[in-house]
Amino acid sequence: MDDLAQRVADHPGWYHALDLPGGVETPGYCDLRPFAPTALPVSLAGRRCLDVGTFDGFWAFAMEACAADEVYALDLPDGTQADWPPNTREENLRASRDSGLEWGSGFKMAHAALGSQVKRIEGNVYDLTPEWTGGPVDLVLCGTILQHLRDPTGALERMYATLRPGGTLLMIEAYSVQLTRTHRKLPVAEYRPPAPGTQFTMWVPNNALLRVWATTDGIF
Ligand SMILES: C[S@@+](CC[C@H](N)C(=O)[O-])C[C@H]1O[C@@H](n2cnc3c(N)ncnc32)[C@H](O)[C@@H]1O
Q1: Are 34 and 58 in contact (CB under 8 A)?
Q2: What is the pLDDT of residues 59-70, one digit of tens each?
Q3: Which is the most buried residue in 86, 141, 197, 208, by most CB within 10 A?
């Protein structure tokens, strides 16, 4: 277990705070642990689930802990396919290379430590098909990914295409508080690249737009 603690400490960049065996915690700056019990059903028994943009795997492992029959976790193999904004793309690619962080390595370490059966898929959400998950799934979890995409509606179409009819799309997404206040009904989004300090963000929707995305079956 000491070895695990050491490997966790040596990992160059945790995103998620994860509870691993032996009281080991990953020092991720995104700690979703307090939200999981309210965001997920008490039991996912009987359901096949897909986590889109899994990063270190928090939602995938949380769905597995809720007794899902099968969980798939999709993410890009590396940064070259990320829709980073045009003004920061080169800088982001350079920083990603210089960090020495191998994409998916945090997920893989946590997966092994947890003895997880989650199946990792390396690919781009724009290419997602039900074949990747051995057929349509019952639940797609879309967590804080849409704001990073050039084409969120295209990605949502692929997610809906991977859901069985009547399945659940669970969106745990960021939204613009300001645009939600100023446009309660009109679906709008803020284009973020010009704003300083947001080098990975493309579009931030208001709540009305998230609702439209969640209710139009991906057909526009
Ligand atoms: C902000 S993180 C969110 C992580 C996790 N879903 C959560 O809710 O905490 C965004 C994740 O989406 C992934 N991602 C970005 N573009 C993607 C794409 N085109 N296809 C698949 N995954 C993508 C990133 O690599 C990253 O792991």
Answers
A1: no
A2: 999 999 999 999
A3: 141
